[in-house]
């Protein structure tokens, strides 16, 4: 009793004495926070990787245009391809172009059309000739129309498409996944705050008698709230560090697996150093959120208690 009275007087006097002693990293709260931090960091890493992939892919193909020559007769198609290349070279705003070799086109469509060949060794089904064009700016509808007008006299079978249009459904799906990851981060932050709120209310009920004595001795609500805030801060910091470690193991393992795919979008989605800083900030933000939630919960409950 004398020891408790001494602690109470120390708290009222403002000295740095722990009023509600407990073992650190004990109970479920640190492990709940560790799970929340791990899931938040993984979701954040996924959202950042998707954002990087979308940005890099759009920057790469934003000025890309594909010219397809749909003439079925090979000799006429080749003649139109040469004429189209000459017309493109004379156009302003065209940064460069490349006529895709027919063997490369055949290899691209072979998995879908099979390996049947004609007498010349090419695919039996006539395929269009392709010209990959790079503009010095975005492939707007006006610029596509200008290219079409320039090619119509020399290559009537030409069809002009912006490369970004082909991947628009893919980009839309990736943006949806990015929004989902952001929503998941927000939901996990709310779940963390709810868990801290319930733990703080439970601790208030456990120490209700001690809190009443503190008020009788002249202690303030802020002093009591500071004790709970400090206690939950230690648990949140320990759990956050553990959760971040688990998240890094998962993120690095997934990154190694995706590296083996060799896909362009996956390679462009690599995390940069600023992304790693944001991920490292997750346990810090979780600790601050837990401490703020605990403080506000305790202060609100104390006003209703007295």
TrEMBL record:
<feature type="transmembrane region" description="Helical">
    <location>
        <begin position="236"/>
        <end position="256"/>
    </location>
</feature>
<feature type="transmembrane region" description="Helical">
    <location>
        <begin position="276"/>
        <end position="298"/>
    </location>
</feature>
<keyword id="KW-1133">Transmembrane helix</keyword>
<keyword id="KW-0472">Membrane</keyword>
<dbReference type="GO" id="GO:0051301">
    <property type="term" value="P:cell division"/>
</dbReference>
<keyword id="KW-0812">Transmembrane</keyword>
<dbReference type="InterPro" id="IPR004513">
    <property type="entry name" value="FtsX"/>
</dbReference>
<dbReference type="GO" id="GO:0016020">
    <property type="term" value="C:membrane"/>
</dbReference>
<feature type="transmembrane region" description="Helical">
    <location>
        <begin position="31"/>
        <end position="55"/>
    </location>
</feature>
<keyword id="KW-0132">Cell division</keyword>
<feature type="transmembrane region" description="Helical">
    <location>
        <begin position="175"/>
        <end position="199"/>
    </location>
</feature>
<keyword id="KW-0131">Cell cycle</keyword>
<dbReference type="GO" id="GO:0032153">
    <property type="term" value="C:cell division site"/>
</dbReference>
<protein>
    <submittedName>
        <fullName>Cell division protein FtsX</fullName>
    </submittedName>
</protein>
């Amino acid at each position: 009793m004398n020891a408790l009275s001494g602690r109470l007087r120390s708290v009222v006097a403002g000295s740095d004495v722990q009023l509600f002693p407990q073992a650190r990293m004990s109970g479920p709260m640190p492990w709940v926070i560790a799970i929340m931090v791990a899931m938040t960091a993984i979701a954040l890493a996924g959202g950042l990787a998707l954002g990087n992939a979308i940005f890099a892919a759009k920057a790469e193909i934003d000025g890309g245009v594909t010219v397809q020559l749909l003439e079925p007769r090979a000799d006429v198609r080749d003649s139109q391809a040469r004429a189209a290349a000459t017309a493109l070279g004379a156009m302003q705003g065209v940064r460069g172009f490349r006529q895709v070799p027919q063997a490369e086109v055949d290899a691209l469509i072979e998995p879908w059309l099979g390996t049947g060949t004609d007498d010349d060794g090419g695919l039996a089904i006539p395929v269009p000739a392709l010209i990959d064009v790079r503009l010095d700016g975005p492939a707007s509808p006006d610029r596509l129309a200008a290219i079409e007008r320039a090619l119509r006299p020399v290559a009537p079978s030409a069809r002009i498409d912006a490369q970004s249009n082909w991947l628009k459904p893919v980009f839309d799906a990736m943006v949806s996944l990015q929004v989902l990851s952001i929503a998941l981060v927000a939901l996990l932050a709310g779940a963390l705050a709810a868990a801290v709120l319930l733990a703080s209310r439970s601790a208030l009920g456990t120490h209700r008698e001690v809190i009443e004595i503190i008020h009788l001795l002249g202690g303030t609500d802020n002093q009591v709230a500071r004790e709970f805030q400090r206690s939950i801060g230690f648990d949140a910091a320990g759990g956050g560090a553990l959760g971040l470690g688990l998240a890094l193991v998962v993120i690095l393992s997934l990154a190694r697996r995706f590296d083996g795919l060799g896909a362009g979008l996956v390679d462009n989605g690599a995390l940069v150093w600023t992304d790693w800083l944001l991920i490292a900030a997750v346990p810090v933000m979780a600790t601050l959120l837990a401490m703020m939630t605990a403080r506000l919960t305790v202060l609100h409950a104390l006003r209703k208690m007295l």
